[in-house]
Amino acid sequence: MNKKIIIWVFALILLTYLTYSSVTPSLNCNITKVADCSYTKVLYLQNDSGGNENAHAENTSTASYAWTVCCDASIIGDTITADCSDSTFLLLSNGTNAHVQEPSINTYEYDACISATNNDVVCNYRSYNCGANETCLVSYASSDWLNNTDAHVANCSYYSNRVCCGITNNPPTLDNHTLTPEIAYTNSSLELNITCSDLDNTTDTITAFWDVYNATSKISALSSSTTATAGSRTNVQNITQGNLTKHNLWYATVWCNDGSVNSSVQNTTKINISNMVPEAPQLTYPSNNFNTTNRTPTFNWTASLDLDVNDSNDNLTYTIVIDCSTCSQIEETGIITTNYTVPPSKQLDLDKIYNWTVRANDGTDNSSWSETRNITVQSVSIIEVTGTVNFLTLSIGQVEDTTDDSPTPFIVENDGNVDVNVSVYAQSDLWITQKINTSSFQYIVANYTPENGSFNYDESNTSTWVNMPGIDYTAAIEAIKVLNYTDVNDRAELEIRLQVPVIEPPGGVSSVIVFKAEASS
Q1: Which whole-number Å values give the CA distances from 387 to 233, 409, 481, 491, 494, in the listed order?
Q2: CA 189 distance to own-chain centroid
């Protein structure tokens, strides 16, 4: 009982292995009822209950048992016989009711043979699995631990020891295989060619097989087989540009088959799909030989065209170079838009000719540089003064100023592109009874609170009230030193102080204050 359990476990393992066999042998053998065998009977078998498990054997001369090993080779146009010209696959102890042994033991007298008319049949003795081009005739086992003599026979799924026979055949040869071109792009088409030969020089049908891989993934839609003429180059597959993406690695595994066995399996050269360099961008603004007063100008260009067929969504970035022979170069990379504004920290020098050019990058390669244009920032000193200081009604001897923002002082803003010094003077006397340049008409410089630090505070007239000079530009006094020009920090206040002379008659008075700006050194 224990022995039978072990035998069935082996049989289950065998069935599992057989499930994975994918090669159809040239020799086909099955254990069938005698009446069902339409081909050649090479051995008979039967147990005491009339079955084909744990059975005795019988040679073809006696031929009285119910079961037979039925073999044919019609798949390759050959005929199987039971003569011994090719192979004696078992020795029998008797012509019937016999035990069997492997022929190498050679103590039994009766032969069980198999041959083929046009080819040779070769038999082997294996555990569990027959070879890829073999078929199982019978399984066998005995009480001897080697299981090679004094054995019973059974169908091939019963015992673990098997008689495995196959028709010898020279495998075809894979003479050549190419996947071209070796340098390919997304707009290319890969061509796979295979050349197979058959050393048997028979009427075997040669089939070329190929599996196409993208990296490690097999592409089933591109993998197949086709009939090939022996010795001739066969174009078996074209991988069109719709399948090709840059940086993909393509190759094919190829082999030949003659209807019985395969050639060696080989890999083609691996083709790495190369990147297509994007086109150079086109400059749009500013135009060539452009003059401006803006030290932080904006540069614009058109989007580059990405030539990769299946990678139109490449994230193109841009590099701009802005340079002059005596200036610090600006090179900005990784720009994701089609424009660039010079930041205040890299502002352009004045009165210098800058050349600028742009190129694109698709994550792999740079385009060529665009055309080169030039731009010049011309220096200019411009200030804007906001406000009219109106003290309304004042009394004799009264002192009033703008430090409390009632009235509001003058706001001086630098609208140029250089730091400036600002001078002031009055064009006329303010009072009827008091001349200019006295304590009755004074100024002082102060910070404009939202933009503190816009000028050189210590060098400017910020500490004491200063008599307003006049009456022409020769009397002007530098009041504000180094007023900055950058937009966020370019304002200062000029506070005004009046003291009404004690003998001043009633009536309205006024004076015009002139602000003069010059570039600070």
Answers
A1: 93, 7, 21, 13, 10
A2: 20
pLDDT at site 10: 31
State the Cα torsion 31-33-36-39 to the nearest 10°. Answer: 40
Query: Judging by DSSP bridges, how do beta strands 184-185 and 271-274 pair with one another?
Result: parallel
Neighbour count for residue 269 (Cβ, 10 Å): 12
**Cα distance between residue 301 and residue 319, in whole Å:** 11
Q: Give yes or no for a contact between 11 and 154, defined as CB atoms under 8 angstroms apart.
A: no
Q: Which run of H or of E encompasses 17?
A: helix 2-19
Per-residue model confidence (pLDDT) at position 75: 85
**pLDDT computed for residue 310 by the predictor:** 67
Q: What is the DSSP letter of 365?
A: -
For 383-519, CATH number? Answer: 2.60.40
Q: Copy the structure tokens of residue 170.
A: 């020279």
Report the number of secondary-structure helices (H) and strands (E) in the chain.
1, 39
Identity of residue 115: S
* DSSP code per residue over 427-483: SS-S-SSS-SSSTTEEEEEEE-GGGTTSS-TTTSS-SS-EEPPBSSGGG-EEEEEEE
Burial of 145 (0-12, 13-18, 19+ CB in 10 A): exposed
State the pLDDT at residue 312: 58
Nearest to 373 by CA among 295, 283, 435: 283
Distance CA 190, CA 252 (A): 11
Handedness of CA 285, 287, 288, 292 (dihedral sign): negative
Q: How many residues does the chain have?
A: 521
What is the CA angle 58-18-100, rounded to 5? 20
1.20.1250.20, 3.40.50.300, 2.60.40.10, 3.20.20.100: CATH of 173-274 = 2.60.40.10
Cα torsion 271, 277, 278, 282 to 10°: value is: -170
Amino acid of residue 283: L
> Cα separation of 16 and 20, whole Å?
7
Record the pTM. 0.55
Give the pLDDT of residue 119.
Answer: 78
Tally Cβ neighbours within 10 Å of residue 266.
14
Give the architecture (CATH level 2) of 283-377: Sandwich (2.60)
> Which portions of the chain are predicted below pLDDT 50?
1-23
Tokens 């009456």 sit on residue: 471
* pLDDT value for 260: 74
Q: Which helix (H) or strand (E) holds 514?
A: strand 513-519
